Amino acid sequence: MFSELIRTIQENDSFVVVSHFRPDGDAIGSTIALGLMLQSLGKKVQMWNNDPAPRRYAFLDGWSDIRPVPSALPDDVQVFICVDTGDIKRIGNAAMDLFSKAPFTINIDHHHTNTRYAGVNVVEGNAAACGCIIHRLIREMGVELTRPMAEALYAAISTDTGSFQYGSTTAEVMRIAAELIEAGVDVGNINRCIYQEVPSTSFIVQREVLNNMVVEENGTISHFSMPAGRKEELGVGPEDTKDLVDIIRVMQGVKVAVIFEELGDGLVRVSLRSKDPQVDVSAIAGMHGGGGHYMASGIRMRGPLAHAREQVLNSIRAVIRSLS
User: Fold this and answer.
1) DSSP characters for 38-91?
2) Ramachandran quadrant class, 218 (left: phi over 0; alpha: psi -120 to 50; beta: rest)
3) 279: which residues sit within 8 A by CB, 6+ positions away?
4) pLDDT digits (tens, 9 = 90+) for 211-250
5) CB-hemisphere CA count at 13 Å for 111?
6) Contact, 183 vs 194, CB < 8 A?
7) Which of 136, 150, 240, 253 could hold 219 in an S-S bridge, CB 3.0 to 4.6 Å?
């Protein structure tokens, strides 16, 4: 499918690049790197997202070019590309509507649970990040890897590998990182921007998590629930609640960590992380309409919070008990 992807890019002139709502580093970095690559080829490119790009990535060239999804598909758009999105529903209703009206659609992703929803599907489930696939595309198209592209790709790959700590960090991933550094990435600066400039509101949320987390099943499961309205009471925003699961994942003995966040529309956002190769959280997520990676997955499911929590926890408990 890579040859078909390249041919579609070569034969068209106007593109849209979109990723999933509540975008993370891989979503933002892949969107920007692909957008910059297309621009370098003389293509017209628009970058959209359902939600604002997190400010921690504001240092990236192209961050401010990620705009809200418009109400109508521009007449000249020929190709609609989704990156880092395993299911089309994750780009949001407005973008889904425009996606359905585009002449050509492309899906570039690394989630093995990807639903292959586009006309051209480039899905590499073993890739550590979508940024790795975009890096390969840049190389295969013979495009010069500029510093802004390299910084966007480094942000994508670093964040999706847990700053190169997860098992997905292969020798090939490190070779890609080395190439990005050679292209001009300042590792110290980019890591400071992403990991060492945490807003004070994030510490308020971390305190809330640590004060209210629950540990069960002999210390193998940790979870925290954020009821609707609590973020407003704490004076924090959606960006402050990202990556909360990592706070409770690192506890010694924990095999599965889960965050339940009740959203204002009656849905519950569930983030799951596994530390045990025997526990496939993508399979657990799939039982409840979600998906993702073997060790990191998510769900959006109907509330109320208590009901959703017990449904997911019961699935996790069953897996944990089966290991005993």
Assistant:
1) HHHTT-EEEEEESSPPPGGGTTSTTGGGEEEPPSS--TT--EEEEES-SSGGGG
2) left
3) 255, 256, 316, 319, 320, 323
4) 999 999 999 999 999 999 998 999 998 788 878 898 999 9
5) 29
6) no
7) 253
Side chain identity, residue 213: M
Q: Are the CB atoms for 139 and 47 separated by under 8 Å?
A: no
* Cα–Cα distance measured from residue 45 to residue 76, given in angstroms and rounded to the nearest whole number: 11
User: What average pLDDT is seen over the chain?
Assistant: 95
Helix (H, G, I), strand (E, B) or coil at 322: helix
Question: Could you tell me the end-to-end alpha-carbon distance of the chain, in angstroms, rounded to an integer?
Answer: 43
pLDDT score of 245: 92
Distance CA 83, CA 17 (A): 7
State the Cα–Cα distance between residues 262 and 273, nearest whole angstrom. Answer: 18
Residue 167 clears pLDDT 90, i.e. is over it: no
The two tokens of residue 155 are 């942000």
The residue behind tokens 């892949």 is: 30
Position 116: which residue type? R
Query: Do the beta carbons of residue 177 and residue 50 sit within 8 Å?
Result: no
DSSP secondary structure string for all residues of 267-320 = EEEEEEEESSTT--HHHHHHTTT-EE-SSEEEEEEE--HHHHHHHHHHHHHHHH
What is the rounded CA–CA span in Å between residue 217 and residue 224? 15
Query: Exposure of 142 by Cβ count < 10 A (0-12 exposed, 13-18 middle, 19+ buried)?
Result: exposed
Query: Is the Cα dihedral 235, 27, 48, 113 positive or negative?
Result: negative
**Is residue 199 over pLDDT 90?**
no
- Tokens in use for 300? 């959006």
pLDDT > 70: what percent of the chain? 100
Question: pTM for the complete prediction?
Answer: 0.90
Residues 110-164 pLDDT 10s: 999 999 999 999 999 999 999 999 999 999 999 999 999 999 999 999 999 999 9
Residue spans of beta strands (DSSP E) within 146-266: 214-216, 221-226, 256-262
